[in-house]
Every structure is written in structure tokens, then in C-alpha cells.
Amino acid sequence: MRRTVITRCVSVAAASVVSHWSVVSAQPAPQPPPDVYLVSLDLTRGMPRVGTPMNFTDRAGYDNQPSFTSDGSGVLFTSVRDAAQADIYRYDIAARRTTRLTMTAPESEYSATVIEGGRAISVVRVERDSAQRLWRFPLDGGNPTVLLERVRPVGYHAWADDHTVALFVLGSPSSLRLADTRTGQADSIASGIGRSLHRVPGARKISFVRKVSPTEWWIETLDPVSRATARLVRLPEGVEDYAWLPNGAIVCGRGSMLLWWSGMAGAEWRQIADLRLAGIFGITRLAVSPRGDRVAFVADGKP
Fold it and tell me: What is residue 23's predicted lDDT score, i.e. its pLDDT?
């Protein structure tokens, strides 16, 4: 198999790219593709304080699904650029430089997660026959390998430990499965779940979204050993993306707002930022840095 991981750098334009949309008759203007933003987060004074957001994928194409490197120095994300397929890129925060990590046409990679102490990433790969499976890509230039041969179509994933992984498997309805990469075994846990899967900070547990009804969605936790699930907090209506802070709090986005739940039983969601004046709308997928000092999120940008 050919080598598929490279480290070619892509320059980041210093100037902002302005998109011009024309309105024809009474039709609404088309929405711009999603971009990934980075914002600082200060947790030293009780309520989190949010800094000024920075769009580090300010361009016309698709950019989505951020996750931080294990040391917090970079953000991995999915991007569709010159070719038709999606690849994984890394944004170096200090250097403000973007590096391409995979180049695998015609296959595409999504939902990159750092594993093995930063030596590799796990991704959802869309293969030539359109199968979606979980793969491992070493970051030293070695060949990628499939992690779960028989489990498909995988949409999203989160690791409980180095061999136990929770999977969002597409279907009608979508399902939560818990798999062991040593054996290939994948057990069904729940159905009708949302796409946002995370490891709970400081615990060997996974959190997921259970969609009780079209308007009632809850964050629940899963114990991979006992397989027991527990209801944690109800999400604001229409929200299914969230991310954990290291202290056990949770952040999510709704429209142009960032919301925060303290982690205390009975606590309500509270607004910590409204980013409308920055031209940010439609906040979806989020990731928090390992130290809790930065949040990466996806937004539609200004129409």
C-alpha cells in the first residue's frame, strides 16, 4: 500500500477572504460553507470568560470537525480543498500554519482523533466502495490500517481507553455501539442517539446524546465495563453538539451563543458569550483544549 501520510505545509492567507453572494428574485442568499474558529477561555473567575474568536479556515471550502492535539498546540480538522475528497489537516496555533496530514484520493477521512500519545490518529474513512469504517493513521508516514473490519457504516467515535471505542453507527435509527479493537467485537448499547460522542474527563466513561423525542435530547454517560447508562443533563432544544471542560463542566453552542453548564446537578445552562457581532452564526461542533483554555468550534459565518 502506498504511503498516505505527508507533512506538506499549506500557507494561511494573512488577509480575510470576502465572499460576495447575489440575491436572485426572492430566493434567499446561499449560506457559506462551515469554518472552524478558535477562541480563548478563561476559567479563573468562576464563570468562563470568552475571548475574541479567530477564523483559521477563512476560505470558500468546507472545514469541519475540530479536535485538539494531545498537548493542545494544534487543532485537527476535516477539510475539502483542491480535490473532491476530504482530508485531515492540522492547524498549529503558535505558528499560525496549516499542515496537511492525509492525502488519499479517492478515499476521504473525517473526525480525526489523536491516539497513542500523539503518534497516530483515528479517523472515519469513506472508502472507494463508500464503506465507512474506523481507521488508524500513523503520523510518521506509515501505512494506515483498518481498526474494526466488520463494523460499518461508522459516523463518529470516541475512545474510552486504548482499545475500547464508542461508535455512532448510521442507520434508521442511528445506534451507539461499544467496540473492542483487539477482538473486533461491537455490542449495541442504545438507539436513536446524536452524533456527539466524548470521553468524560477524569473517568473511564463515554458521554452521548439520547434523543428521547424530536425536542427532548439528553446527555447521558456510559460505563464501558457495566454497560450502565445514566442521564446527566438535558440539552437546550435543537442542540446536539457539546464538549467537556477538564473541570467537568460542558460547553455547547446555540445560534451565535456559547452556553455553559457547570456540571452541578440541577444547574441550568447559562450564556457565556454572544458572537453575533463577530459575524458568527449557527455554531455546531465543538472541542476544548486539554488545559481548558481554548475552544474550537464550527460556525456558518456571516451570510
Answer: 34
Q: Render pLDDT for 134-167 as a digit per residue (tens, 0 to 9).
A: 999 999 888 999 999 999 999 999 999 999 999 9
How many angstroms from the chain centroid is the CA of residue 267? 25
User: Which pTM does this prediction carry?
Assistant: 0.87
Cell numbers describing residue 97 = 500554519
- Is the CATH code 2.60.40 the one for domain 236-303? no
Q: For residue 151, which of 108, 186, 110 has the smallest C-alpha distance?
A: 186
Domain locations along the chain = 73-147, 171-234, 236-303
Identify any residues that bridge with 189 across adjacent strands, giving them in sequence order.
Answer: none
Q: Is 150 left (phi over 0), alpha (psi -120 to 50) or beta?
A: alpha
